[in-house]
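ARCHIVE RECORD
Type: protein–small molecule complex
Small molecule: zinc ion
Source of inputs: curated submission
Record status: active
Notes field left blank by submitter.
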Amino acid sequence: MTSDRPDANSLLRSPNNKRSENRLKPAVRKDPKEQDADAGSYLLCRHCLQVISSPAERIEVQGSHKHTFANPQGIIYEIGCFKNAAGCGYTGVPTDEYTWFRGFRWRVAICGHCLTHLGWLFMSTASSSFNGLILNRLVESKKEI
Ligand SMILES: [Zn+2]
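STRUCTURE (tokenized, with ligand):
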């Protein structure tokens, strides 16, 4: 008998009906059936390789994913906008001082593992926020979990 062989039809079944549920899980939880082009790809802290976010969390804010800004000291940052960044911690009191996105207050976002400054959390209301992460402080990886 060959009944121990996987059913070919089950291997071809689309996982799309799982997608909305997957969106609610932390980015570090990998679903091997996810067929998104970014499946299994993560954005890690360049310093300690902690999983910070994933390409699937990329969003556009004010018409673009990437933004280049200078802070008041003239330091230039290229940031990418991400809806969720489960690996980040946040510090400081929300402020709108020198904010780069009108209507958004910000806090400093740091690596939850090594505390490297990775960017900022921008908040317009409690329910509307995104992470602006400094792209050259992240590294993309196909890390297996
Ligand atoms: Zn780190």
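CURATOR ANNOTATION: The two ends are 35 Å apart (CA to CA).
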